[in-house]
Amino acid sequence: MGIWNSAVVLYGIQLPDNHDAAGWQGEELREEILRHHAGVDYALAGPYDQHNTYLCTDFAEAEMGKVETLNPFGDGGQAERDARLHNACLELEFADHPEPAWHLIASQS
Fold first, then answer.
1. Which domain of life is it from (predicted)?
2. Residue 34 DSSP one-character state
3. Which residue from 44, 68, 81, 108 could staple onto 48, CB 3.0 to 4.6 Å apart?
4. Cβ-contact 72, 11 below 8 angstroms
């Protein structure tokens, strides 16, 4: 068994670690809620066994030393993506969420 290092860039909102939809245990709830929110997905990324949970609209992962190009806000604008994320957060009872942002994460798995 080895450790896989990668880099992740995403546009979204990090869920607090203590939120019901965070972490591996929150997968079922996330999938149920996000089914109603086209264009919103989630990602688990971060240090080995300490991944953070993000709701995101744009996501790219690259192996270390490789280039991955992400086209920010392809078919829709930032306001549209922000609204999608906000609505998903409301359904997850996370109304006081931070503003969406770009996150660059060194990830291990």
1. Bacteria
2. H
3. 108
4. yes
| Bridge partner list, 7 | 62, 106
| Among 33, 51, 36, 34, CA closest to 105 | 51
Name the pTM for this structure. 0.86
Per-chain mean pLDDT for the chain: 87
- Rounded distance between C-alpha atoms, residue 22 and residue 7, angstroms: 20
- What does the block give as tokens for 72? 């920010």
Where does the pLDDT of residue 24 fall: very low under 50, low under 70, confident under 90, or very high at 90 and above? confident
Q: Which two tokens stand for residue 85?
A: 């994320």
102 forms beta bridges with 11
Report the distance separating Cα 91 and Cα 29, nearest Å: 11
Put the strands of the sheet holding 5-15 in their side by side order: 41-45, 52-63, 5-15, 101-108
